[in-house]
Amino acid sequence: MANKHRALTFVGLGALLGSVSTILLLKLLPRRKKALQMIDIKGNGLASETPTNCSAVTGSGYSKLAGVDLLNDEIVSEQLTRNIQFFGVESQQKVTASYVVVIGLGGVGSHAASMLLRSGVGRLLLVDFDQVSVSSLNRHAVATRADVGIPKAQCLKDHFLSIFPECHIEAKVLLYNVSSEEEILSGHPDFVLDCIDNIDTKVALLAACVRRGLKVLSATGAGARADPTRIRIADLRQSTNDPLSRAVRHRLKREYGIEGGIPVVFSLEKPKAKLLPFKGPSGEEENPSDYQILPGFRVRIIPVLGTIPAIFGQVMASYVLTQLAELQVQPEPVINLDIDHYRMLHQRLIEHEESLYGTAMHVQVDVEEVMYVAKELWHGRSAREPSAKDVGRSMWRSVNELMLVRWDREKPASVFNLILLKFKEADEHESSSLEDIKEGEPEFFARVTSILKRAKLEFGL
Description:
17 helices, 9 strands, single chain, seven-stranded mixed beta sheet, alpha/beta, two-stranded antiparallel sheet, 46% helix
């Protein structure tokens, strides 16, 4: 009974301390708001509390040091406390000191930008030529009916300033093209988010980012889909089921010689609905191009379940944040294998062990664990290939040329001691010692060792 009373006392004290700290922080807010307004009047680079013209840059003189210093502010550090606990102070400082450009502020881009802001990104450039419409309210992150008719960039900025006023926000009502490239992509952004749904503009933007050496993450088609479990992040070459990414991939290769190297968010789900016929004011079917705001841009004829573009945006924000914080996250690989392929790899391992060691008693993995090793650790390709070269059917063929072998011959064939190699590579590996590999191929040795260490940690071994 005494223990129960003691526990209740501690809970009560904790609640009291939490309430007191919250009250103190709330008392600081009015003073903090006045300070922000005074700083903005002096032109020292913070976004104003009062909305300004969306085409103008708010403030000037932003530096990465200013972003790091933001965490010294009591309100900011409290607002980002969960992120700090997740990333650690140093990694969160990298996020807060970063500059991200988001182009396309519809269902995908608005949600991506919103979470980047809420996660403490210190500087954002929001770009879109379009306005908020009534029909976009089913998927936009912050827009209300009162925002209808307002430029999307201005709408986001106005809402964002009430969420994280310390963020340096620029809003540009611009269409991305060759003439606006410098204005949008200059300033050395740490990341560019492509949330554009027009092929011509998307291709031009991605090519410009590659040419400038900028990190870019692209969103493909989120419309006409309903299954959130099918959303993936992978190289553009692997987004095989998506019509938009297929067209972008073809154009990038044909016009710019770019075949991959660009991460994209896409869905493995086939579209569940087709483009709807366009009906004009008379109710009769008409040519959609007669109603376009700009040539080449679609009119509202794509059915959209609002949850899917929102999840696309959240996925994009998570990817960018972990990249900025330098937190290693391994996206689930897109591998078109069925259980028979994993059974084949397992059987091949048993036969190899029996041939080399005279017994398979040291094989400590089953088919399910072989699936983890082949898919999660080695992404369905040889450990000597750090990036994917084969996708789709060609990946199926390449897997037929692979086998699992021990990394260290002195240890059993377990989850954290198996690597995937081509047959010839496996023979060469068996004739070498780990010391030879460490001395002759230090980068390969370090990479494999790191991956196997991760497997050991994930299995709690």
